[in-house]
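To illustrate the input format used throughout this study, we show a single complete record. The first block contains the structure-token representation of the backbone; no residue identities are included at this stage. The design step must infer an amino acid for every position from geometry alone.
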């Protein structure tokens, strides 16, 4: 049995190639759960997840209430949906277009950016540690974004030509939103607004981009 090196992942077939090769999804990519419990009983999960409005945080008239919601979301949930985040639509649109452009390239062109032993950065499946474990029906692309000197540019595609600029712009804009949220979280905690920013300054920031092929077998949803 093969095993992955520490910090690395075993090579596995490309899912985009498999979807055109097999009439059925291979068993290795199908996980049937014996039972599933509702995470939130009696509630619609989309309405239960905290929604934080950055615009309301910045508005003096609503900032206090929204700031309390932010603190509660961190304490009780650990995650939330952020709306009115201020990231320009054009920045989001350009990045989406470029990552789509990367995934639709021929396999041989994408393989140039494949992960290497001992490194999770790059294109491929992640955290594959044995040759018989269940896998996600998806292809992944993982990059380090910040600090800037942590970027290994050999994994950053040069095609589409605008990919690097698009990702850099997206990274910069989202970092601004995070910095703003940290200020308000510090306020809710009753500490200096800059205190959390100083703690998280220089912390690593990464991104995982995922390609999911179109559903090939509807009956999988029925547990077969």
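Output of the design step:
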């Amino acid at each position: 049995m093969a095993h992955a090196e520490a910090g690395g992942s075993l090579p596995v077939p490309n899912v985009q190639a498999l979807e055109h090769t097999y009439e059925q999804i291979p068993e290795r990519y199908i996980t049937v759960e014996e039972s599933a419990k509702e995470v939130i009983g009696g509630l619609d999960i989309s309405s239960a997840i905290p929604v934080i409005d950055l615009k309301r945080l910045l508005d003096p008239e609503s900032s206090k209430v929204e700031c309390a919601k932010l603190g509660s979301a961190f304490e009780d949930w650990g995650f939330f949906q952020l709306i009115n985040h201020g990231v320009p639509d054009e920045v989001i649109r350009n990045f989406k277009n470029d990552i789509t452009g990367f995934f639709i390239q021929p396999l041989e062109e994408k393989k140039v950016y494949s992960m290497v032993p001992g490194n999770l950065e790059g294109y491929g499946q992640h955290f594959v540690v044995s040759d018989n474990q269940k896998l996600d029906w998806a292809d992944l692309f993982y990059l380090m974004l910040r600090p800037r000197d942590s970027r290994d540019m050999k994994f950053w595609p040069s095609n589409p030509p605008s990919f690097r600029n698009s990702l850099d712009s997206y990274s910069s804009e989202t970092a601004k939103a995070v910095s703003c949220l940290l200020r308000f979280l510090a306020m809710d905690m009753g500490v200096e607004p800059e205190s959390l920013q100083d703690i998280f300054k220089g912390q690593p920031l990464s991104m995982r981009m995922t390609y999911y092929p179109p559903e090939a077998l509807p009956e999988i949803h029925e547990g077969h």
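Structural context for interpreting the output: The first strand starts at residue 51 and ends at 53. The radius of gyration is 21 Å.
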